Amino acid sequence: MALSVATSGSGITIVRVEGQLIVGNRQELKALVTESLDRGGRKFLIDCTDTGYIDSSGLGALVTIAKKVREHGGEIRLAGLNEDLRSLFTLTKLDSLFEIGETVEQTLADF
After folding, report:
1. Which residue of 6, 39, 58, 85 is most buried, as measured by CB atoms within 10 A?
2. CA–CA distance, 5 with 21 (Å, rounded to integer)
3. pLDDT at residue 17 above 90?
4. Region 54-61: what's the mean pLDDT?
5. Count of other CB atoms within 10 angstroms of residue 79
6. Looking only at Cα atoms, what is the longest distance across the chain?
């Protein structure tokens, strides 16, 4: 998995997850979001356009991150889930925890 971070013109932290979000790399994502929270970031968009697979520990990491962001008065959204990942979020009812946008551009515009 590769992670990259950018900030939109409106101050939204965009975290791009490439590859798989699994037990071996979930801590990287948690640390990255925590660091951004510590620096004052409050709006997060997790870009899953290039994410092929998320295992149960990756889902758990996303839930933990969402809780932490909300505890700090922030907001987190997901974008770009492929069909399989969208089904996973629906089956696990996590689509009710996260606002999920079709594309990064559309989700940024809706923030």
Report:
1. 58
2. 16
3. yes
4. 97
5. 23
6. 34
CA distance 46 to 104: 9
Structure tokens that stand for 75 in this block: 């907001």
> How far apart are alpha carbons 100 and 6 in whole angstroms?
19
For residue range 70-92, list pLDDT tens digits in order.
999 999 999 999 999 999 999 99
Q: Is residue 26 over pLDDT 90?
A: yes
Distances (CA, A) of 7 to 12, 25, 61, 97: 5, 22, 21, 23
Q: What is the mean pLDDT of the chain?
A: 96
How far is residue 56's CA from residue 86's CA, in Å, rounded to a whole number?
14
